[in-house]
Amino acid sequence: MNSPISPSAEADDGARANEVRGAVRSTLQLGGSLMVTYAIALGIRALMPRYLGPEAFGYFNWSEAFAATFFVATNLGLETYIRKEVPVRPDHASDFFGTTMLLRLAMTLILMVALALVLHHTGEPPEVQHLVQWFAVAQSLIVVNASMAALLHSKGKVAGLSVSNVITKIVWGGGLALMAAFGVGLQWLAVPMVLSEAVKLIISWKLAKEHLNLKFRIDLTATKKVMKACLPFFLTAAALACNGRTDMSLLGKLASKEEVGWYGGAFSIAGLTFLISPIFGWVLMPMMSRAAARSPQELSHLTRRSLEGVLAFTVPVMMAMVLGADLWVRLMCGPGFEPAALPLRVLSPIFVMAYVTMVSSIWLTMSNKEWWVTLAATMGAVVNPIFNLVLIPWLYGRIGPSGGATATALSMFLTEVIVTVLFLGRMGTNSFDRRSLVMVAKTAVVCGVCVALDRVLMGAGLAPWPRLGLTATTYVVGVLGTGAVRPAELLQVVRMARQRGSHGASAEVAVPAAPTA
């Protein structure tokens, strides 16, 4: 005789299924807006290198990186704290929101004055100084908007935010396109970003008041507690930001702004693999926060399956970037950027590891091991400049054009390897189970076959497009034939997304059980 199922267990299963469907719907909504915004960004990524040329594009990237590094302190670690705590207690947001906004405003004013003094003594051209200052204003808005978005993601209210993302990206992309059409000078090219972020802040504030009943109040006692809890998140964010920005600053000083332009071109193309990265903070982190509140086992299961999904998405994109680097540089950047192909090949594998560390860092944070994330990120921030200081002068002199850019890409690659190993080592069996490891092994074999096939086809003189087409076909057949990727599970997710029934209907849909290895 079957044992009866208690009403509380049924309610828990129904709520969990409803939560999963809500997360999937949020993912699809945000993913739709990301597709539109990335289409706009793709056009701008192709426009700016052609409009500016390697050297001016180098100044453009260097200015943005310099401003972002300068304003790292305004992050406060608040975004991660929000995604960890607000999903399980939404009313808590009003306890610290007003005070932290005023704190950020005061920090911004001080940093703007300091930035002006630093720029005055660096000897950079006046138009570059103006560009950096505009990027600094944009960066201050970006940080606030990230916190506003985190609040909405934590509540699961993303429809309005998805529309906002599209609107603001149109403002940014359209502004840059108009400036390029009218031949506007370099110093004004960050203004569209300032305008777009200002529009986003207005929309996000209205959405937060509507969905979270967010109130602007000053509570010093509560904010002090929040800031203490945010310390590891702040140090991690600062380390990651410096790790991703100081490299361009060093490259510009140790090599040339033209090398920064080639590196920036390669990074812009490789960065397209970050298409789904916002989903991690927007959807996965709040979902894992609620899973952690229920049980460590559920958190680990969700983490393992998320890592599988990450690899299924990022590995083929990485392969396309590596094998077609010359073609992508020619299409995206245009004449003068041919040396960017080698740094692009070096950068491409980094983004697979970056996605893995994203999921790993969420597990560590939800397991109250956030200081380990801070330690690994800080180590990366320390070793990356050291690698750059050693490798840039060496490869810049040995390789010639793109030597400095390749050195910076290699420095980031080595740093990412170290951080990934540290994260996965700390997670242990919570990262990969037998099923995951089998998938990784099968995927690696398929990748090896594709690389060998590409070399053979290239030696036979086959044109790039047919060569990449045959290699891509081989990859798809390989991962499906070996079972490394399972389409049935993807279809199951789509079916879940389509089930938008009432709470009662949601109880009838069981959360997928942990599959056997």
Structural summary, described in words:
By secondary structure, the protein is mostly helical. The protein has a domain at 29-238. It has helices spanning 7-70, 78-85, 93-122, 126-155, 159-181, 191-212, 220-254, 257-270, 277-294, 296-323, 325-332, 341-347, 350-366, 370-399, 403-427, 434-459, 464-482, 487-498, 503-506. The two termini are 29 Å apart.
Short description:
The chain is mainly alpha-helical.
Topology of helices and strands:
Elements: H1 7-70, H2 78-85, H3 93-122, H4 126-155, H5 159-181, H6 191-212, H7 220-254, H8 257-270, H9 277-294, H10 296-323, H11 325-332, H12 341-347, H13 350-366, H14 370-399, H15 403-427, H16 434-459, H17 464-482, H18 487-498, H19 503-506
Helix pairs in contact: 1-4, 1-5, 1-7, 1-8, 1-9, 1-18, 2-4, 2-7, 2-9, 3-4, 3-7, 4-6, 4-9, 5-6, 7-8, 7-14, 7-15, 8-12, 8-15, 9-10, 9-13, 10-13, 10-16, 11-12, 12-15, 13-14, 13-15, 14-15, 16-17
**Poorly predicted residue ranges:** 1-11, 493-517
Strand content bin: under 5%
- Helical/strand content category: mainly alpha
In one word, what is the shape? globular
Instruction: Please trace the helix and strand order, writing H or E for each element.
Output: HHHHHHHHHHHHHHHHHHH
Mean pLDDT: 82
Total of helices: 19
| Biggest sheet details | none
Keywords:
mainly alpha; globular; disordered C terminus; 517 residues; 19 helices; single chain; 81% helix
